[in-house]
Amino acid sequence: MVRVKSRYLLCEVNVSDRSRLLLLDDRAVATAVRAAVARTHGDYGSALCTIGFSVKYLNAHTGIVFLRFPKRSYKLLWSALPFITSVESRGQKIPCSLNCLHVGGTIRTCQKFLIRYNTQQLHLMLPQCKNEGKEEKQQVRKAILNCSLPGGNKEAFEDELEIEEDEEE
């Protein structure tokens, strides 16, 4: 038997109203992706998308989606993502777009990328804290440390935070 190789696309669902994200479910996202592939690539793209395509993970609170599909057809699926303008879920049409963040060979590599991406986003938000007190910034720094990967990365990350604190003072 030959192993079927897959690719995983890590996508972010962008909506204007964040509360509408809670209405999303994995079947609705899969249907929207299949429809976009059928519109852009016709019957050939639709046939490739039906074999081995699935939504592996959907977080409705953060808008993160993992899409799994065969390696040979990932470029077709990837090229159809910009044509998704809305997702119909639970009888409501949710205007949104899918932003591809990462393409990986395993879910684990996508998870590692997602942790790095979220850490970078937290670093960008840290200077924009409304309360200029040190307590709030310390809480955000602790949250960043708690979401980092276990192992050797934590010490390097703590050193980086100490350097940033010294620069702020």
Indicate the low-confidence ranges by residue numbers.
148-154, 164-169
Question: What's the number of helices?
Answer: 5
Q: Please give the largest β-sheet.
A: 5 strands, antiparallel
Envelope shape: globular
Portion of residues within helices? 40-55%
Number of strands: 5
Order of helices and strands: EHEEHEEHHH
The fraction of residues in strands falls at 15-25%
Please give the order of strands in the largest beta sheet.
Answer: 2-3-1-5-4
Overall radius of gyration? 19 Å
Alpha-carbon distance between the two ends: 62 Å
Structural class: alpha+beta
* Mean pLDDT rating: 81
Pfam families: RNase_P_Rpp14
Keywords: Nucleus, rRNA processing, tRNA processing
InterPro entries: Pop5/Rpp14/Rnp2-like, RNase_P/MRP_POP5, Rnp2-like_sf
GO molecular function, one term: ribonuclease P RNA binding
Brief write-up:
The protein is globular. By secondary structure, it is of the alpha+beta class. Helix 1 (26-50) packs across helix 2 (74-80).
